[in-house]
Design goal:
165 residues; mainly alpha; 3-stranded mixed beta sheet; 56% helix
Length: 165
Amino acid sequence: MPRFLQLFRHSRTGVDDSVDQLMGIMASVPAVDRELAVLLAAEQLCNTTITLSEHPMPHGHYGVVLRTRQGHHIRVDPGLPGDLRFHTVLHELGHIVLGHTATSEPGANRLAQIMGGEPPACSASTTAGQAHREAEAEIFACTMARRLRRGLTTRHMSRLDEAFG
């Protein structure tokens, strides 16, 4: 294997692998709407139910993911314009796909009261942990948006595009 491909292979992250898996599933999901296609693919990948609704958010917040008994529920602010809304949905899906909603912590109850739902399971025990999860979800959203915008559904083409722009 050429040296530059070996270096690139080792620079892959868990976010990259998750995006690859989701894009692979999306290739077989028959959906007219890209938002619906991503949601259906994420449900298959995570083996969970994901619902989406609009709900007014506190100032400075665009969306939130809540873990419920039925699966996951994403709420986005109804005032978001199209591209920002889609990016917010991708960001919240990133938390689900990357496993940020696996455990619930006591501090999450206050946010749940504010949002009018069950405690979100994506709260972190430390500011550093929360910042890391938010950064991962944002990288996930940006990578998904870029691949969808450029039509990069195959792993090979997306890796070449990400390596060489």
